[in-house]
Amino acid sequence: MSVSFQSVVTRRLLRIAVSLVFSVNFLSSGLANAAAPMVTSQAPGYYRTHLGAFEVTVLSDGTASRDVDKIMHPGELVRQAIVDSHEHLPIELSINNYLINTGKQLVLVDTGAGELFGPHAGGLLIRHLKAAGYQPEQVDAVLLTHIHGDHSGGLAIGGQRLFPNATVYVDRRDSEFWLGESARLAHPEKSTTFRQSHQTMDPYVVAGKLKSFDGATQLFPGIRSVPAYGHTPGHSAYLIESQGQRLMLWGDTVHVAEIQFSEPTVSIEYDVDHDAAVISRQRLFADAARDGYLLGSAHISFPGLGHIRKQKDKDDSYVWAPAPYQSLRSAQ
Questions:
Q1: Per-residue b/e over 150-187, b at no fewer than 16 CB within 10 Å?
Q2: All structural domains of the chain
Q3: Is the confidence at residue 147, as pLDDT, over 70?
């Protein structure tokens, strides 16, 4: 059978066309994959759970990178604990805050660092509050565990109150110390903290929105303060209770979970009174292990919720057990 020259050319052209289409599709696919940008940001940092009739939303303010072996004592013990945990120094310390919706009040415990730690640490609280479905104007009360930059720093930016309708509550020992003149003169080594305290607290003082309490106090139905003095003169935990369920928010009782649960006597240089801070930590550990209530920690990896149990055959040594993750459906 003879084949015309025209038909041969047509078949060759068709093969060339098919080959070109395949090559273009292959190259386009490869270029698309190569051009896809790497996503480097985290999802909004909030975690919601329920405590009885209360809704609890953990709000991340971000993290702060710290060489904890240089600011905690004894440093070698801290460094070895980090190595044993297969972590590296510096480590990222979470900055966790807790929003309690009681159905009648919206209460925020601590406010993160705001702008005080610069652009690479903290400063995400308001963004995550909004992502969680709330606005700063809705917050009725802010309870400070203590006045330190990473707990009170998010109260104000540039002299403007970020929670314009909220009253700020703090133990009077802390407000008298950090906002008073005599303590500032007596502790020149803490000049940065004194300056930051005025920077973020003064707008509330001027507006008549600062309220001090004295020790153990029932602040709202289901919310009371628990003295945990030492880290600062008025350092306080808050016990939240609803329908028989309890949550203790204990601020800076623990900075580094890798060492302080097993070795509660390990302290940090930010403690105003190291000995008192250790005594408070040991007492709170013993109470939490005995009574089994849920704990919320400011600097344990987000969301910082869990329980502790006593280590067998070891005095004053504990183990941290992170709370199981809950979907919103199972939390209701």
A1: bbbbbbbbeeebbbeebbbbbbebbbebbbeeeebeee
A2: 46-331 (3.60.15.10)
A3: yes
